[in-house]
Amino acid sequence: MGLTWRLVLQGDILNFGMGVEKAKASGLDVQMVMVGDDAGVGRKQGGKVGRRGIAGTVLVHKVAGALAATGASLDDVAKVAQLTADNVVSIGSSLAHVHVPGREVGEEDVGMGEVEVGMGIHNEAGSERVKEGLGELVGRMLRYMLDPKDEDRAFLQVSENDEIVLLVNNLGGVSVLELGGITNEVVEQLARDWKIRPVRILAGTYMTSLNGLGFSISLLKVQDTGLGEGKSMLELLDAPVEATGWAAAVKPETWKKSWDEAKEQAAADEEAAKPSNLQSKS
């Protein structure tokens, strides 16, 4: 038995489809799961090919792998994997195209001060180039992912009542310090502008693109797997794993505690800095 994955890209559609048919012809029990989570590619641009698969596939792999480790059937693993894929949306941005070692930088590279929004993981062109700071850029990316009025990109309907898993992914060239700042900005904007407080926050280097100087945001709307205790989406995401590319999620309680402690410390520092209005006697 086997499960094959297909990130929706033109070449993958052809090659993985052929691989599945060959495996079935050889008598293997194989099912296909398609991941097309990229909101940077709208319906018009995607056409018949569909959206590309980017970092959201990491969440699909984790859920499917954890479920398979419980001894679940191939049918159940494929079903839950596709359920996860159908409820995840992502978008990436980068300051530069990936540089393949030994090749010169091409004229198509992103200009100074520009950010390419919607760039794929294989140097595929994004949807636009903008000159924005981090706050405006994150706001734009979240609108593309969450705005129900954007008919071309409204692939996933999310409300403040949904349980949401957040994944902030380093494309390869972003420092740990920078990724922390990006993650904080995303969390703050989700809470402030969309009333979304993720039940899990993952931030790290999960799906890279060589030295990609950018990041992607993925949102997973948690669904009922229908498989009972121990096999919910959150339990499968929380299941221990020794893969070097997986960093465990930060639970919301931990994130809130750190944030509250930081605010309390800032308030205490501000109070301590106030003048006492006491005058010393000469």
What is the first-to-last residue Cα distance?
90 Å
**Quantity of strands, as a count:** 8
User: What is the overall number of helices?
Assistant: 8
What is the name of the CATH class? Alpha Beta
Residue fraction in strands = 15-25%
Main β sheet profile: 6 strands, mixed
Tell me the name of the CATH homologous superfamily.
Dihydroxyacetone kinase, domain 2
Number of domain units: 1
Q: Would you tell me which CATH topology applies?
A: Hypothetical Protein Tm841, Chain: A,domain 3
Helices and strands, in order, run as EHEHHHEEEHEHEEHH
Shape: globular
Which runs of at least 5 residues are low in confidence (pLDDT < 50)? none
The CATH architecture name reads: 2-Layer Sandwich
Whole-number radius of gyration? 22 Å
Strand order of the largest sheet: 5-4-3-8-6-7
Averaged pLDDT? 86
Short description:
This protein is α/β, with parallel strands linked by helices and 282 residues long. It has eight helices and eight strands, in the order E-H-E-H-H-H-E-E-E-H-E-H-E-E-H-H.
